[in-house]
Amino acid sequence: MGVRKLTDGLLRIITIVISSLLLLSCLTPYVPVRGLLSFFGFVSLGVPLLVLTNLLFFFLWLLRKKRILIMPLTALVLGYFLLGSFFQFRFKEKPIAEEDLSILTFNAHGFNNGYRKIKRENVDLEIIDFVNSMGPDIVCFQEYDRRQTENFRQYPYKHVYLEPYRSAQAIFSKYQIVETGSLDFPETGNNAIYADILYKKDTIRVYNMHFQSFQVIPSRRLLTYKYSGRALGKLSDAFPKQQQQAELLKAHSREVSYPVIISGDLNNTQFSNVYRTVAKDMTDTFDEAGTGYGRSYNFRYFPLRIDFILADEHFEVRAHKNFNVKLSDHFPVMASFKLRSE
Predict the structure, then answer these.
(1) Name one GO molecular function term (predicted).
(2) Which of 114, 168, 201, 327 has its CA 20 to 30 A from that of 89?
Protein backbone atom coordinates (compact mmCIF):
# COMPACT_ATOMS: atom_id res chain seq x y z
CA MET A 1 0.00 0.00 0.00
CA GLY A 2 2.83 2.38 0.83
CA VAL A 3 4.57 1.71 -2.49
CA ARG A 4 1.34 2.34 -4.40
CA LYS A 5 0.78 5.65 -2.61
CA LEU A 6 4.37 6.67 -3.30
CA THR A 7 4.02 5.79 -6.99
CA ASP A 8 0.70 7.60 -7.20
CA GLY A 9 2.20 10.70 -5.58
CA LEU A 10 5.18 10.66 -7.94
CA LEU A 11 2.90 10.38 -10.97
CA ARG A 12 0.85 13.33 -9.70
CA ILE A 13 4.01 15.45 -9.35
CA ILE A 14 5.10 14.52 -12.88
CA THR A 15 1.62 15.38 -14.16
CA ILE A 16 1.74 18.81 -12.51
CA VAL A 17 5.22 19.50 -13.92
CA ILE A 18 4.50 18.52 -17.53
CA SER A 19 1.11 20.26 -17.50
CA SER A 20 2.72 23.43 -16.14
CA LEU A 21 5.45 23.28 -18.79
CA LEU A 22 2.89 22.93 -21.58
CA LEU A 23 0.93 25.87 -20.16
CA LEU A 24 4.17 27.86 -19.97
CA SER A 25 4.92 26.97 -23.58
CA CYS A 26 1.79 28.89 -24.60
CA LEU A 27 3.88 32.02 -24.04
CA THR A 28 6.75 30.94 -26.30
CA PRO A 29 5.38 32.34 -29.58
CA TYR A 30 5.17 35.78 -27.97
CA VAL A 31 8.61 35.93 -26.33
CA PRO A 32 11.65 36.91 -28.45
CA VAL A 33 14.41 34.48 -27.48
CA ARG A 34 17.40 36.49 -26.27
CA GLY A 35 19.59 36.37 -23.17
CA LEU A 36 17.81 34.99 -20.13
CA LEU A 37 14.70 34.44 -22.21
CA SER A 38 16.49 31.63 -24.06
CA PHE A 39 14.69 29.32 -21.65
CA PHE A 40 11.55 29.79 -23.75
CA GLY A 41 13.47 28.52 -26.77
CA PHE A 42 14.11 25.21 -25.01
CA VAL A 43 10.44 25.00 -24.03
CA SER A 44 9.28 25.63 -27.61
CA LEU A 45 11.47 22.80 -28.93
CA GLY A 46 9.96 20.46 -26.36
CA VAL A 47 6.31 21.21 -27.19
CA PRO A 48 5.77 18.05 -29.32
CA LEU A 49 7.07 15.90 -26.45
CA LEU A 50 4.99 17.85 -23.91
CA VAL A 51 1.85 17.33 -25.99
CA LEU A 52 2.45 13.58 -26.22
CA THR A 53 3.23 13.17 -22.50
CA ASN A 54 0.20 15.23 -21.48
CA LEU A 55 -1.98 13.04 -23.68
CA LEU A 56 -0.47 9.97 -22.02
CA PHE A 57 -1.14 11.24 -18.51
CA PHE A 58 -4.63 12.42 -19.42
CA PHE A 59 -5.61 8.90 -20.50
CA LEU A 60 -3.81 7.40 -17.50
CA TRP A 61 -5.87 9.47 -15.05
CA LEU A 62 -9.02 8.99 -17.13
CA LEU A 63 -8.69 5.22 -16.80
CA ARG A 64 -8.08 5.60 -13.08
CA LYS A 65 -10.96 8.10 -12.78
CA LYS A 66 -8.87 10.70 -10.95
CA ARG A 67 -9.76 14.38 -11.00
CA ILE A 68 -6.16 15.39 -11.65
CA LEU A 69 -6.88 14.59 -15.32
CA ILE A 70 -8.18 18.19 -15.45
CA MET A 71 -4.58 19.46 -15.45
CA PRO A 72 -3.29 17.78 -18.64
CA LEU A 73 -6.68 18.31 -20.29
CA THR A 74 -6.58 22.05 -19.56
CA ALA A 75 -2.99 22.29 -20.81
CA LEU A 76 -3.87 20.45 -24.03
CA VAL A 77 -6.96 22.54 -24.75
CA LEU A 78 -5.24 25.87 -24.07
CA GLY A 79 -2.18 24.71 -25.99
CA TYR A 80 -4.32 23.86 -29.01
CA PHE A 81 -5.95 27.29 -29.12
CA LEU A 82 -2.88 29.36 -28.22
CA LEU A 83 -0.09 27.42 -29.94
CA GLY A 84 -1.97 26.18 -32.96
CA SER A 85 -2.45 22.69 -34.25
CA PHE A 86 0.14 20.03 -33.51
CA PHE A 87 -1.76 17.52 -35.66
CA GLN A 88 -4.01 18.03 -38.68
CA PHE A 89 -7.05 15.76 -38.62
CA ARG A 90 -7.56 15.49 -42.37
CA PHE A 91 -8.07 12.00 -43.72
CA LYS A 92 -6.12 12.54 -46.93
CA GLU A 93 -4.08 15.17 -48.71
CA LYS A 94 -5.45 17.01 -51.70
CA PRO A 95 -3.61 16.12 -54.90
CA ILE A 96 -1.28 18.72 -56.36
CA ALA A 97 -2.94 19.84 -59.59
CA GLU A 98 -0.86 20.46 -62.68
CA GLU A 99 -2.49 23.83 -63.35
CA ASP A 100 -1.50 25.19 -59.92
CA LEU A 101 1.85 26.75 -59.01
CA SER A 102 3.84 24.10 -57.13
CA ILE A 103 6.86 24.64 -54.89
CA LEU A 104 9.09 22.05 -53.24
CA THR A 105 11.53 22.87 -50.44
CA PHE A 106 14.19 20.43 -49.30
CA ASN A 107 17.30 20.58 -47.13
CA ALA A 108 19.30 18.07 -49.16
CA HIS A 109 22.22 17.91 -46.71
CA GLY A 110 24.81 18.25 -49.45
CA PHE A 111 23.12 15.49 -51.46
CA ASN A 112 24.76 13.09 -49.00
CA ASN A 113 28.19 13.89 -50.45
CA GLY A 114 30.86 14.24 -47.80
CA TYR A 115 28.49 13.81 -44.87
CA ARG A 116 27.67 10.14 -45.41
CA LYS A 117 24.91 10.22 -42.83
CA ILE A 118 22.81 7.84 -44.92
CA LYS A 119 24.72 4.60 -45.29
CA ARG A 120 23.84 3.64 -48.84
CA GLU A 121 25.23 4.52 -52.23
CA ASN A 122 23.82 6.93 -54.82
CA VAL A 123 21.57 8.94 -52.52
CA ASP A 124 22.37 11.96 -54.68
CA LEU A 125 20.88 10.18 -57.70
CA GLU A 126 17.82 9.26 -55.65
CA ILE A 127 17.31 12.94 -54.78
CA ILE A 128 17.55 13.91 -58.45
CA ASP A 129 15.08 11.18 -59.45
CA PHE A 130 12.69 12.18 -56.68
CA VAL A 131 12.62 15.87 -57.65
CA ASN A 132 12.25 15.03 -61.35
CA SER A 133 9.40 12.63 -60.63
CA MET A 134 7.53 15.22 -58.54
CA GLY A 135 8.10 17.90 -61.18
CA PRO A 136 7.42 21.02 -59.07
CA ASP A 137 7.43 24.37 -60.85
CA ILE A 138 9.92 25.79 -58.34
CA VAL A 139 12.48 23.95 -56.20
CA CYS A 140 14.23 25.48 -53.18
CA PHE A 141 17.30 23.58 -51.96
CA GLN A 142 19.11 24.27 -48.71
CA GLU A 143 22.59 22.76 -48.19
CA TYR A 144 22.91 22.42 -51.93
CA ASP A 145 25.72 20.62 -53.79
CA ARG A 146 27.11 22.72 -56.65
CA ARG A 147 27.93 19.60 -58.66
CA GLN A 148 24.25 18.79 -59.14
CA THR A 149 23.20 21.81 -61.20
CA GLU A 150 23.50 20.10 -64.59
CA ASN A 151 21.14 17.37 -63.36
CA PHE A 152 18.21 19.80 -63.24
CA ARG A 153 18.19 20.86 -66.87
CA GLN A 154 14.40 20.73 -67.01
CA TYR A 155 14.54 23.99 -65.05
CA PRO A 156 15.73 26.65 -67.51
CA TYR A 157 15.99 29.32 -64.81
CA LYS A 158 17.99 29.13 -61.62
CA HIS A 159 19.61 31.10 -58.81
CA VAL A 160 22.47 29.09 -57.32
CA TYR A 161 24.20 30.82 -54.42
CA LEU A 162 27.73 29.60 -53.77
CA GLU A 163 29.77 31.99 -51.66
CA PRO A 164 32.75 31.14 -49.40
CA TYR A 165 31.77 30.45 -45.79
CA ARG A 166 28.07 30.57 -46.68
CA SER A 167 25.52 27.78 -46.82
CA ALA A 168 25.01 26.76 -50.46
CA GLN A 169 21.44 27.31 -51.61
CA ALA A 170 19.57 27.13 -54.89
CA ILE A 171 16.26 28.07 -56.46
CA PHE A 172 15.27 26.31 -59.71
CA SER A 173 12.28 27.50 -61.72
CA LYS A 174 10.32 26.55 -64.82
CA TYR A 175 9.27 30.19 -65.03
CA GLN A 176 11.52 33.09 -65.92
CA ILE A 177 13.59 34.58 -63.10
CA VAL A 178 13.99 38.33 -63.59
CA GLU A 179 15.87 39.27 -60.41
CA THR A 180 17.83 37.48 -57.70
CA GLY A 181 19.53 38.35 -54.46
CA SER A 182 20.77 37.15 -51.10
CA LEU A 183 20.13 38.30 -47.58
CA ASP A 184 23.36 37.36 -45.80
CA PHE A 185 22.87 37.11 -42.06
CA PRO A 186 25.61 38.56 -39.82
CA GLU A 187 28.09 36.41 -37.88
CA THR A 188 26.97 33.14 -39.42
CA GLY A 189 27.19 31.07 -42.58
CA ASN A 190 23.42 31.02 -42.94
CA ASN A 191 21.38 33.16 -45.28
CA ALA A 192 18.20 33.55 -47.28
CA ILE A 193 18.23 33.88 -51.06
CA TYR A 194 15.38 35.06 -53.23
CA ALA A 195 14.20 35.11 -56.83
CA ASP A 196 11.63 37.33 -58.53
CA ILE A 197 9.74 35.09 -60.93
CA LEU A 198 7.39 35.92 -63.81
CA TYR A 199 4.36 33.71 -63.25
CA LYS A 200 1.65 34.15 -65.86
CA LYS A 201 0.95 37.90 -65.81
CA ASP A 202 2.38 38.54 -62.36
CA THR A 203 5.75 38.84 -60.67
CA ILE A 204 6.13 36.86 -57.46
CA ARG A 205 9.02 36.67 -55.03
CA VAL A 206 10.17 33.36 -53.60
CA TYR A 207 12.49 33.33 -50.59
CA ASN A 208 14.59 30.29 -49.76
CA MET A 209 15.68 30.52 -46.12
CA HIS A 210 18.16 28.53 -44.08
CA PHE A 211 18.31 29.71 -40.48
CA GLN A 212 20.99 29.03 -37.88
CA SER A 213 21.37 25.35 -37.08
CA PHE A 214 21.58 24.04 -33.53
CA GLN A 215 24.49 21.85 -34.69
CA VAL A 216 23.24 19.05 -32.49
CA ILE A 217 23.07 15.58 -34.00
CA PRO A 218 20.18 13.56 -32.53
CA SER A 219 21.56 10.38 -31.01
CA ARG A 220 21.77 8.48 -27.75
CA ARG A 221 24.78 10.61 -26.82
CA LEU A 222 22.38 13.53 -26.49
CA LEU A 223 21.01 11.86 -23.37
CA THR A 224 24.40 11.64 -21.65
CA TYR A 225 25.44 14.29 -19.14
CA LYS A 226 28.67 15.24 -20.93
CA TYR A 227 27.18 15.57 -24.39
CA SER A 228 23.90 17.16 -23.27
CA GLY A 229 25.86 19.99 -21.62
CA ARG A 230 27.60 20.83 -24.89
CA ALA A 231 24.30 20.54 -26.74
CA LEU A 232 22.61 23.01 -24.40
CA GLY A 233 25.42 25.47 -25.04
CA LYS A 234 24.94 25.20 -28.80
CA LEU A 235 21.20 25.67 -28.45
CA SER A 236 21.69 28.78 -26.31
CA ASP A 237 23.97 30.26 -28.98
CA ALA A 238 21.57 29.47 -31.82
CA PHE A 239 18.34 30.93 -30.39
CA PRO A 240 19.28 34.65 -30.53
CA LYS A 241 20.81 34.22 -34.00
CA GLN A 242 17.61 32.65 -35.27
CA GLN A 243 15.61 35.49 -33.74
CA GLN A 244 17.74 38.10 -35.50
CA GLN A 245 17.53 36.22 -38.80
CA ALA A 246 13.75 36.01 -38.55
CA GLU A 247 13.46 39.75 -37.96
CA LEU A 248 15.82 40.58 -40.84
CA LEU A 249 14.00 38.31 -43.28
CA LYS A 250 10.57 39.61 -42.29
CA ALA A 251 11.66 43.23 -42.61
CA HIS A 252 13.16 42.48 -46.04
CA SER A 253 10.01 40.72 -47.29
CA ARG A 254 7.78 43.59 -46.17
CA GLU A 255 9.53 45.87 -48.64
CA VAL A 256 8.28 43.74 -51.55
CA SER A 257 5.29 45.16 -53.43
CA TYR A 258 4.19 41.92 -55.11
CA PRO A 259 3.13 38.44 -53.91
CA VAL A 260 5.59 36.67 -51.60
CA ILE A 261 6.25 33.04 -50.69
CA ILE A 262 8.78 32.16 -47.97
CA SER A 263 10.04 28.59 -47.85
CA GLY A 264 12.90 26.63 -46.38
CA ASP A 265 14.54 25.39 -43.22
CA LEU A 266 13.66 27.48 -40.16
CA ASN A 267 15.59 25.15 -37.81
CA ASN A 268 12.89 25.79 -35.23
CA THR A 269 9.34 24.67 -34.66
CA GLN A 270 5.96 26.28 -35.29
CA PHE A 271 5.69 26.92 -31.54
CA SER A 272 8.56 29.43 -31.44
CA ASN A 273 8.71 33.21 -31.66
CA VAL A 274 11.11 32.70 -34.58
CA TYR A 275 8.30 31.04 -36.53
CA ARG A 276 5.71 33.59 -35.40
CA THR A 277 7.93 36.44 -36.58
CA VAL A 278 8.39 34.99 -40.08
CA ALA A 279 4.85 33.63 -40.46
CA LYS A 280 3.04 36.79 -39.33
CA ASP A 281 0.34 37.78 -41.86
CA MET A 282 1.11 34.67 -43.90
CA THR A 283 -0.55 31.29 -44.37
CA ASP A 284 1.26 28.11 -43.38
CA THR A 285 0.46 25.58 -46.10
CA PHE A 286 0.50 22.71 -43.60
CA ASP A 287 -2.16 24.37 -41.46
CA GLU A 288 -4.27 25.00 -44.53
CA ALA A 289 -3.97 21.67 -46.35
CA GLY A 290 -1.61 19.29 -44.52
CA THR A 291 -2.30 16.02 -42.71
CA GLY A 292 -0.93 14.34 -39.60
CA TYR A 293 2.09 15.78 -37.80
CA GLY A 294 3.74 17.29 -40.87
CA ARG A 295 7.09 15.92 -39.69
CA SER A 296 9.94 17.41 -41.73
CA TYR A 297 13.01 16.46 -39.67
CA ASN A 298 14.20 12.92 -38.99
CA PHE A 299 14.30 13.01 -35.19
CA ARG A 300 13.62 9.57 -33.79
CA TYR A 301 12.06 10.51 -30.46
CA PHE A 302 9.11 12.70 -31.50
CA PRO A 303 7.90 14.47 -34.66
CA LEU A 304 9.48 17.83 -35.47
CA ARG A 305 8.25 20.26 -38.12
CA ILE A 306 11.01 22.77 -38.90
CA ASP A 307 10.66 23.17 -42.70
CA PHE A 308 7.92 25.45 -43.94
CA ILE A 309 6.20 26.97 -46.94
CA LEU A 310 4.44 30.25 -46.14
CA ALA A 311 2.36 32.36 -48.52
CA ASP A 312 0.97 35.87 -48.22
CA GLU A 313 -2.64 36.93 -48.82
CA HIS A 314 -2.23 36.99 -52.62
CA PHE A 315 -2.19 33.18 -52.74
CA GLU A 316 -4.82 30.54 -52.18
CA VAL A 317 -3.26 27.36 -50.79
CA ARG A 318 -4.49 24.41 -52.81
CA ALA A 319 -2.48 21.47 -51.45
CA HIS A 320 0.34 20.46 -49.12
CA LYS A 321 2.36 17.27 -48.95
CA ASN A 322 5.11 15.94 -46.69
CA PHE A 323 7.21 13.13 -48.15
CA ASN A 324 8.44 10.35 -45.90
CA VAL A 325 11.51 9.56 -48.01
CA LYS A 326 14.90 9.06 -46.39
CA LEU A 327 17.16 11.12 -48.62
CA SER A 328 18.55 13.50 -45.98
CA ASP A 329 18.13 14.32 -42.30
CA HIS A 330 15.17 16.41 -43.51
CA PHE A 331 12.08 15.36 -45.46
CA PRO A 332 10.92 17.23 -48.59
CA VAL A 333 7.85 19.46 -48.35
CA MET A 334 5.71 20.48 -51.32
CA ALA A 335 2.73 22.81 -51.71
CA SER A 336 0.65 24.25 -54.51
CA PHE A 337 -1.07 27.60 -54.93
CA LYS A 338 -3.39 29.65 -57.05
CA LEU A 339 -3.01 33.42 -57.31
CA ARG A 340 -6.22 35.08 -56.17
CA SER A 341 -5.88 37.53 -59.07
CA GLU A 342 -6.31 34.72 -61.63
Answers:
(1) endonuclease activity
(2) 327
